[in-house]
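It is worth pausing here to work through a concrete case rather than discussing structure prediction in the abstract. The textbook approach is simple: state the sequence, then state the predicted structure, then interpret. We follow exactly that order.
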Amino acid sequence: MHRRVAAKLIEDLDDLLNVVEENIAKTRALVRGVRPNRWLDDWQDLASRQDIAGLVAAMVNPSQKGIEMRQCSPFTGALTPRVRRDTR
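Step two, the predicted structure:
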């Protein structure tokens, strides 16, 4: 799924960054703990700098940090239900 979101990020940066910003704000209100907030800080930093390469790298990073960051992924709603279904 994140690979498809990465493609959309490249195609429509402004729209997707708006989704990311909104989702980070919503998620911050729901999560507890230092680690999830740190992951959100990392996403926020990448998005605010419009670091496309960094966002894409974080989305597809197979390392433990990448796995952990995706647990607080700010890309909910970035893909339409049809695209999500077709991506599976």
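Step three, interpretation. The longest helix spans residues 13-28. The CA atoms of residues 61 and 67 lie 7 Å apart.
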